[in-house]
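re: the backbone from monday

yeah here it is again, tokenized this time
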């Protein structure tokens, strides 16, 4: 198969959702449809139950599950689908953001009872930054949920994206009868079942057909006719181009746990979702069909086996053909790297492969050379952009409790930061080390893993910090002057970039006003 054909048949995406909306369930059903798994229950939830959050075995177990489910590849109707997993706990949101840099589109699951929840809003913001195409799946229609029109309004309002229903529910909860597929003009009737995979879609190009009354009852039939009229009147015709540009989100209704509405969404997904797209580097745009290979690392899993300091780096292939054992340019590093152990993830199985194509994610066994954000190429010295660190929200000072283990602590911290568990900032004054995270849980994870994997003991002391802002200026003199006058608040990130540690929002605002020639950035990429 030619490179162009390989690219055309790939769809790389992630499912995102607020916890409990049904991400794991939907993932499992997609794998069942794709024939990648045979039984329900095979996909383990990667949720960390907050009730058991001090149970470290639980976190370690979840880390194990995360490796197994990081990428789930399967074939469906001749399309190679790469489904990337995102963490179930919001404290690991940064990990999700990074995973979203490696996909070409997303499916967003929304619970019809709860509507748009906070985590969904945050994730949507990240999608918007990259204009990632989004399909919405409104789930749990077998429950008494909110009015579908209200839900659509809420999605538009809270997620700030236009929507276009492509299916429409008939009833809800106990009265849920099925969905009408507006895209294919077919009716799919609901029978609660967690096993049944085939669906019985009937074409209904003409809703006036009296057969409809017989199937769903005259009241439902009339309601559906009214709804469809209204939708066709209110919403503009669905334009795939708008979806691909991230301007409009097609919406499907269904019930993942009952396998209902999933098939229809999947069929539409493979038709409309984008194949691997071009990507920006600091030098130029890279198109997937370029002959020469390029890719970037978006995730690292380390120390799964405490006896070996092994790590798996997850590489997204952006162009060309990636080959096992071929030396590649590690753009940030001192020497070329070659990989003999290249894994691809098919459903729950790992297999060693010899080559991979744009859109694919491969796992590279690495002994410590790779970092998140690293680019590999077939020679060119370019770096993929759009994999930023965001300013953390919680900051704590690292206190070493065992001076004999300082080296181990430094090494452990460095490696955990390379894995992207959190961000480390070192103050210029006194070299105080501060860890910044988006969630409370990471501090406990870091403390536990430092002890367990590096034999280092730390405590974390709360710090009164609001944001870490990366600072730059066109005027070097002004920047030097700023660094001198604010030296107490100046730190360096892992790449030695200058960071201003602001104590409060109002104070930051004041400093920004007083120093108009200094630029303050809230992500590490600018
Ligand atoms: P998540 O990964 O997004 O966090 O959600 P997950 O799939 O684990 O689903 C959360 C809960 O919602 C699960 O129930 C799941 O069974 C249920 N669920 C998923 N889809 C549907 C649906 O279409 N209808 C209804 N009624 N429920 C649905 P649980 O009680 O937490 O777990 P379980 O014991 O049922 O597995």
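seq for it, each position gets an aa:
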């Amino acid at each position: 198969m030619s490179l162009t054909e390989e690219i055309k048949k790939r769809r790389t995406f992630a499912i995102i959702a607020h916890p409990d909306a049904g991400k794991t369930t939907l993932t499992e059903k997609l794998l069942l449809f794709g024939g990648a798994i045979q039984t329900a229950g095979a996909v383990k939830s990667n949720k960390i139950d907050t009730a058991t959050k001090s149970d470290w075995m639980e976190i370690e177990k979840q880390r194990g599950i995360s490796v197994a489910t990081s990428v789930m590849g399967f074939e469906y109707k001749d399309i190679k689908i790469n489904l990337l997993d995102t963490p179930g706990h919001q404290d690991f949101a940064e990990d999700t953001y990074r995973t979203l840099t490696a996909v070409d589109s997303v499916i967003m699951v929304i619970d019809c009872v709860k509507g748009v929840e906070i985590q969904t809003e945050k994730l949507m913001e990240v999608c918007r930054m990259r204009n990632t195409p989004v399909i919405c799946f409104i789930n749990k229609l077998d429950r008494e949920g909110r009015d579908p029109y209200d839900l659509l309004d809420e999605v538009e309002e809270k997620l700030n994206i236009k929507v276009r229903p492509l299916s429409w529910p008939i009833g809800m909860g106990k009265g849920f009868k099925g969905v009408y597929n507006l895209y294919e003009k077919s009716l799919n009737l609901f029978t609660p079942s967690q096993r049944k995979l085939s669906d019985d879609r009937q074409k209904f190009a003409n809703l006036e057909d009296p057969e409809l009354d017989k199937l769903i009852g005259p009241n439902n039939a009339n309601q559906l006719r009214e709804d469809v009229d209204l939708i066709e009147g209110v919403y503009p015709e669905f334009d795939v181009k708008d979806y691909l540009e991230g301007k409009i989100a097609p919406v499907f209704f269904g019930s993942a746990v009952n396998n209902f509405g999933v098939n229809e969404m999947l069929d539409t997904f493979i038709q409309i979702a984008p194949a691997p797209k071009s990507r920006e580097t600091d030098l130029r745009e890279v198109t997937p069909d370029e002959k020469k290979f390029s890719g970037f690392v978006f995730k690292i899993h380390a120390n799964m086996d405490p006896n070996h300091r092994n790590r798996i780096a997850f590489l997204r292939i952006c162009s060309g053909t990636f080959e096992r054992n071929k030396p590649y340019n590690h753009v940030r590093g001192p020497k070329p790297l070659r990989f003999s152990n290249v894994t691809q993830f098919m459903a729950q199985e790992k297999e060693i492969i010899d080559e991979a194509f744009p859109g694919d994610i491969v796992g590279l066994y690495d002994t410590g050379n790779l970092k998140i954000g690293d680019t590999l190429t077939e020679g060119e010295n370019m770096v993929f952009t759009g994999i930023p660190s965001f300013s953390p929200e919680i900051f704590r000072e690292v206190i070493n409790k065992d001076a004999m283990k300082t080296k181990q602590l430094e090494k452990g911290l460095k490696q955990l930061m390379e894995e992207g568990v959190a961000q480390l900032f070192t103050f210029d004054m006194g070299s105080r080390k501060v860890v910044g995270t988006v969630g409370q849980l990471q501090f406990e994870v870091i403390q536990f893993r430092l002890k367990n994997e590096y034999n280092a003991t730390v405590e974390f002391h709360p710090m009164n910090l609001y944001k870490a802002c990366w600072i730059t200026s066109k005027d070097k003199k002004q920047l030097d002057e700023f660094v001198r006058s604010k030296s107490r608040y100046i730190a360096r990130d892992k790449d030695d970039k200058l960071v201003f540690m602001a104590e409060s929002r109002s104070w930051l605002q004041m400093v920004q006003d007083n120093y108009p020639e200094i630029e303050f950035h809230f992500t590490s990429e600018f």
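Residues 17, 19-25, 45, 47, 88, 139-140, 142-143, 255-258 surround guanosine-5',3'-tetraphosphate (CB under 6 Å). The mean pLDDT is 88.
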